[in-house]
Amino acid sequence: MRFDAAVLRSYESPFAVEEVILNAGPAEGEILVRIAGCGMCRTDLAVRHSAGRSPLPAVLGHEGAGVVVETGGPDTGLSIGDHVVLGFDSCGHCRTCMGAAPAYCDSFASLNLFGGRTEHAARFRDAAGGELAPRWFGQSSFAEYAMVPARNAVRVDPSLPLELLGPLGCGFLTGAGAVVNSFGVGPGDTLAVFGTGAVGLAAVMAATAAGAVTVAVDRFPERLALAEWFGAIPLRAGSAGLADRIQVRTDGGAQYALDTTGSAPLINDALRALRPTGHLGLVARLRAALPLEPGALDRGRRISHICEGDAVPRLLIPRLTGLWQAGRFPFDQLIRKYPLVDINEAERDCDAGRVVKPVLVP
């Protein structure tokens, strides 16, 4: 089978939309999906800074949504014509997977980032016969088609705008999942969100839907305006007395804080803004040591890393689409669509902050 995909051939080069070859149909437990749209996530772009750990050349993309066009065997639980959102890969049988925590799969890094399923490489080649890396996050969905494990696909209502749903599989899942799963935010709770990109704004929307009082912190006025429109109190990052101002706005301190920036000064601001027993969650990967101020974790405060919103995608994605249908999680307001051939323009706009969530449409 031949189709177009965006191939990244080196860490410095632009994406090249070219013909690729999939030389086998779905194996048992797999499905072939015609991609309707795929979000561009910061993790896709971080491959350029991965110090050679993610194998290239590769087709990236891990926020895909599309239609099932072929299934591998009768036990996939899906049928041809089903509309699906694609999630991250996991082994399905380690202790954390069996404990309903697939984002902490023992093989998560290998399967999603570093080409753990090497048996897939021989099935995926460029038009000249050159081998492409095994599928990225179980998807490689910057393409017209993707071959994925059926357990990573979540069936959705066919009346939904399928081309917009892909980011529910990662970026929006992460922000919203941190609020509803990691924190369990409810009515009257207080939350401070640091960084209002796709993950942070998804957290703001989920917290507003839950009835929480939310403060959003960013340095870009246009992002803060979006956060305010979604129901948050906007505060400028770097402003004097930021933690004290958050404590005033949250009546003595936030019970929860979510940092999406990886910035050590903002992380310390977040800890200072917490009330006793408060919980700070980090979703960005730290690239340097994190010095904590004395007393930062006193009085029951704690800090943890959150991966993929602690989500079981088959549970959370339908919840989010239901909230969208009710007008309470308007994630579509964050999306700008680009043709797949304009993937490099989408990357530039994403890097420059001109768009919150690019979605590539084959």
Automatic annotation (TrEMBL):
Similarity section: Belongs to the zinc-containing alcohol dehydrogenase family.
Q: Which cofactor does it need?
A: Zn(2+)
Transmembrane region(s)? 164-185, 191-217
Q: What is this protein called?
A: Alcohol dehydrogenase catalytic domain-containing protein
Lineage runs:
Bacteria, Bacillati, Actinomycetota, Actinomycetes, Kitasatosporales
Family annotation (SUPFAM superfamilies): GroES-like, NAD(P)-binding Rossmann-fold domains
> Start and end of every Alcohol dehydrogenase-like C-terminal domain?
198-306
- Name the Pfam families for this protein: ADH_N, ADH_zinc_N
InterPro entries, per the entry: ADH-like_C, ADH-like_N, GroES-like_sf, NAD(P)-bd_dom_sf
- PANTHER family linked: NAD-DEPENDENT ALCOHOL DEHYDROGENASE, S-NITROSOMYCOTHIOL REDUCTASE MSCR
* Domain Alcohol dehydrogenase-like N-terminal: residue ranges: 28-156
Give the highest taxon in the source lineage.
Bacteria
What keywords does the record list, in alphabetical order? Membrane, Metal-binding, Oxidoreductase, Transmembrane, Transmembrane helix, Zinc
